[in-house]
Structures are given as C-alpha cells and as structure tokens.
Write a structure and sequence with these properties.
The structure holds two protein chains of two kinds. Chain A is α+β, with helices and mostly antiparallel strands. Chain A has three domains: 7-53, Uridine Diphospho-n-acetylenolpyruvylglucosamine Reductase, domain 2, CATH 3.30.43; 61-174, 2-Layer Sandwich (Uridine Diphospho-n-acetylenolpyruvylglucosamine Reductase, domain 3), CATH 3.30.465; 181-284, 2-Layer Sandwich (Enolase-like, domain 1), CATH 3.30.390.50. Chain A has ten helices and twelve strands. In chain A, the strands form three sheets. Chain A has a five-stranded antiparallel sheet with strand order 4-5-8-6-7. A four-stranded antiparallel sheet of chain A has the order 9-10-11-12, with helices on both faces. In chain A, strands 1-3-2 form a three-stranded parallel sheet, with helices on one face. In chain A, strand 2, helix 2 (38-43) and strand 3 form a beta-alpha-beta unit. In chain A, helix 8 runs antiparallel to helix 9 (241-254) and helix 9 (241-254) runs antiparallel to helix 10 (265-282). By secondary structure, chain B is of the alpha+beta class. Chain B has helices at residues 26-33, 89-96, 106-119, 125-132, 142-154; strands at residues 5-11, 14-20, 52-55, 58-61, 74-76. In chain B, helix 2 (89-96) crosses helix 5. The radius of gyration of chain B is 15 Å and the shape is globular. The N and C termini of chain B lie far apart (42 Å). Classes of the chains: A alpha+beta, B alpha+beta. Chains A and B meet through strand 1, helix 2 and helix 4 of A and strand 4 of B.
Chain lengths: 285, 161
Amino acid sequence: MKAGSFEWHPARSADEAVALLAEYAPQDGRVIAGGQSLVPSMALRLAFPSHLIDINGVEEFARVRVDGNELVIGACVRHAAFHVPVEPGPLGRLMVQVVHDIAHFPIRQRGTFCGSLANADPASEWCLLAATLGARMVAKSVRGTRVIPAADWFQGIMTTALAEDELLAEVRLPLLPEGSRAGFYEFSRRAGDYALAMALVTWRDQGGAMQDVRIGAGAVEVQPRRLAKAEAVLEGRPRGTAAIDDAAAAASAAVDPLEDFHTSADYRRDLVGTAVRRAFAQAGS
Amino acid sequence: MAQKMAITLDVNGTEHEIRVEPRKTLSDALRGDCGLTGTNVGCEHGVCGACTVLLDGVPVRSCLMFAVQAQGKALRTVEGLSTGGKLHALQQAFTDNHALQCGFCTSGFLMLAAGTLEQQPDIDDESLREVLSSNLCRCTGYQNILRAVRQVRDAGKEGAR
C-alpha cells in the first residue's frame, strides 16, 4: 500500500510542463494534477510511473473563464470550484448539481475537472457532461497544440486520444443557451461511490415542443455517450410522462451495458431507463 | 530508489525540516518524520478519511498527496486544535455527545468538521450530512458525530479557536 519509487518534477509553467513531459514520457513519466485517482492507483501498485510531472504549481492551469460561447477549464481547476456557479447561465447551474455526486468533499478539494477527462473512467460525471454537451479537449505538447472533439476523445475504458507526450491543457465546454433546460441523475449504492448508471439530459422548450434534445448515459458502457435513438424519440414532441417513458425505453434498448460481479447487464439496462426518467424529473416541470 | 529531498512542512504553525523520498505520502511524513501521530492512517487509498488534515484551510486526504507537494502550504492536524490545554469546541462536543468509541476515525472527523465549519459556519443539515459522509466510522457512531458537529455549529462557535 505504498507507492513505488519515482522522481518528482514540479512544473511552474505550461511550457515547462510539456517540455518535462516530452523528456520523461518515454521513460514512463506521467502528469499528476489532483492525484485523487493516480495516487491510490500508485498505492495499490496498479500504476508505477518512474517520473511524475506535477502541474499543481502552474498558475495558468488554475483558471476557469468564459471565452465566446465556451467555458474554458484549465488543467488544474479543482472539482470544488464548481460548488458555486462558475458562469451565470444554465451550464453553471448544471455543473453545481453534477459536482455533488463526484466522490466526497475532501476529494473534490484536490481532484480536477481535466484530470477526470484524462483518466476517462466510464463512471466519471465530468466525462458524461463532456460527451453529452460535445466538449473540445485542448492537448498541448512540444509538437504543438491540437483540439480533440469529445466524439474522438473517448476510446474505451480509461483510454483517450491523448498521446503520451501530450498534456490536457484545457477543456472547452459549450455554454448552454439561455432558456435551456438540464437535468442529471446518478445512482450509486453508497454516497460518494462510483455510479452504477447516470443520465444527463438537456433540451429547449420551443412552442410547447422539445428541441435540441440531448440524452447522455454514463457508467453503463465502456465510455459515456449520447443516445441518438432516445433523443430522436423526444425531438419535436411535447414534454410529458408518456414521451419521457418512451425515451427511457429507447435508452435502455440502445445500450450495451458493462457487467461485473455485483451488477448484471440487465440490471444496468433497466437502471439507464430509470436514470433518464429521473434526470428529466430532476430538471423540474 | 529516488533521492531523498529536503523539504519544509508548516504544520500547526511550526516548521518541520525533513528529508523524504518523493513517494512518501503526506500522512506518512506527518506521522513518521514530523512525529505527529494524531493523524491516523486507515485505508491508504482515499476511502476512509481517517487521515484528513487541513491544507490551506480545506480538508484533504493526506494519504492522497505526497509530502513534497505540501511545501509552502499551511497544514493543520488534530494536534493543532486544542489551545493552552483547552479542548477545541469540536473536541469537547465529541466528548459530550459520545461521538467516538474506538477513536480511530476521530482525528479525521474532527479536521473534516473543523475545516467545514470555518468555511461554512451556517452550513445546513443536509449539506453537513453530505460532508460528513466523506469519512468512515466503523463503530457506526455517525448519528452522534452529526449531533456533535451540529451542536458546535448551532452554538455559533464557527468551529474555531
């Protein structure tokens, strides 16, 4: 239960961080941000990096700001930053709801938004948000900067498009337009535990019909994703119990659930429908 | 083995100059190198919360960061709660409400509660329950722990001094 030996390289700037990463990534070097997943993995000897590039001292990574119609979240912005709305619109309010289901209060003081995206746990709340809203990931290396859309970012369980010498410098989330509605629901067995299923939904009410419906499911498959078939069920329909029940059924039918010792695929499939219904209910009437 | 590094930790206002390998967790450094054994180490992977300390005023798991990362930060541990032989309001309330049995989780709960009440002296019951759910007590004394912390909050002592 003690981490293996490594050399520690604190970075003071983004440029220094990517330079260190370029040097040490080929020698089994990794970035550490909040460390709330990496450190336990190291304690359990599931991860055994020889070098850690520490970005906690990089001031520019601690910033969250609005740029045009995007919320820009730096590499070291902690989960706890979202306990209060970081922007006055519907996205800021949605993130306040979502953050309370992420682990526990002390973990949220250290763990980071971008760290969750880079870790890409299937049960990550922020990964579900990024997949559902269509975030853009900004990857930086000494070779330059590239932008990776959410559709290409997730590549399976804890696997992303990030190359080994690249650092996730920021995530850009599209702001939800004023008047957007949004809801989130997560089911887990214990407070703060990993989700067994969760759903995140957004839409706009347009003349009594639902428009721009997005339904995302997380903790169900190898990676979070939008469920296009369930979205299509609701698009253009008035919001009501029957319509949402149809969407929930479509969501259950659309997923290919993970199975584990405690949780069968059938159970998770059923749970997805419930999560979708409750996410809409949570968004209010 | 990586070289030991000379670092200084500021714990409860006292500077501790220690030499540690980068892989040493903050919790192990506090106990083994600073001699402050009030912080308990339970699960060593962030689940139990027994090792909770305050880092620049906010509660964190000291087993989930390395000691070298705590340089330049103000750390507070359970040893820093009482002043001049007088128990902190939370310590007194834990005693009065029978909020500890075996005591292993107590220092973690005290620091979690102290940090929370200092930042949110008017925290509502639901939020307090959510925060206190962060830590485990295997004697299942949760109701009494909640009662003790609520008492301090209601007394308006702001978990302080």
